Amino acid sequence: AIRRLTVYHEDLVVNNIHSIVLALVQEVKNLRSQVSRFALLTFGDLFTYLKKFMDVDLDLAVKNILQKNGESNDFIRSDVEKCMDKMINNVTTSKAMLALLNGGASHRNPLVRRTTAQYVYKCCEIMGPGKL
Q1: What radius of gyration do the chain's Cα atoms show?
Q2: Maximum distance among all alpha carbons in the chain?
Q3: What's the CA gap between 112 and 114, in Å, rounded?
Q4: In the chain, beta strands by DSSP E
Q5: Quick one: which of 121, 108, 103 has its CA closest to 64?
Q6: How far apart (Å, rounded) are the C-alpha atoms in residues 84 and 44?
Q7: Residues 40, 65: contact at Cβ < 8 Å?
Q8: Total Cβ atoms within 10 A of residue 28
Q9: What is the Cα–Cα distance from 43 to 50, expressed in whole angstroms?
Q10: pTM of the model
Q11: To the nearest 10°, the Cα dihedral for 59, 62, 64, 70?
Q12: Is the pLDDT of residue 25 over 90?
């Protein structure tokens, strides 16, 4: 339902973005893989359609999405990477870089740190040497 609201009624989602992000974070943490995957897909749609409006809760979302990347399931990791690609391409790049660094640079899991470094590098490429 949130995915449909995001596409067709963006104003409703923007007005309630914080509560939606909090609910989705709980679903990303869910141990059921299908529930977690749909939450990641929903975050991807939020990043795609709401763009700069997602900057407000970006730290919370990115931290939990990166934490999900530490799991051993390859299909979950691929969904996390798709979600992160959508995030990098649609939100403010400097805020995305800060959220990545805050959420995963000092994480205990090496997979999370690797993914963080990969997307920080992509942010640097997008920003270019002038803004960096």
Answers
A1: 14
A2: 44
A3: 5
A4: none
A5: 103
A6: 8
A7: yes
A8: 22
A9: 10
A10: 0.89
A11: -140
A12: yes
Nearest to 105 by CA among 95, 123, 92, 120: 120
Note every long-range contact of 28-35, with CB atoms under 8 Å and residues 24 or more positions apart, other chains counting: 28/64, 28/65, 28/68, 29/64, 29/67, 29/68, 33/73, 33/75, 33/76
Handedness of CA 90, 94, 95, 100 (dihedral sign): positive
Contacts of 68 (CB under 8 A, 6+ apart): 28, 29, 36, 40, 76, 80
Local confidence band at 80 (pLDDT 50, 70, 90 cut-offs) = very high
Confidence label for 98 from pLDDT (cuts 50, 70 and 90): very high
**Per the structure block, which two tokens stand in for 97?**
């870089």
Angle at 25 between CA 19 and CA 29, to 5 degrees: 150
Question: Which tens digit of pLDDT belongs to each residue from 47-66?
Answer: 999 989 999 889 999 999 99
Q: Helix axis angle, 110-131 relative to 74-90, nearest 10°?
A: 20
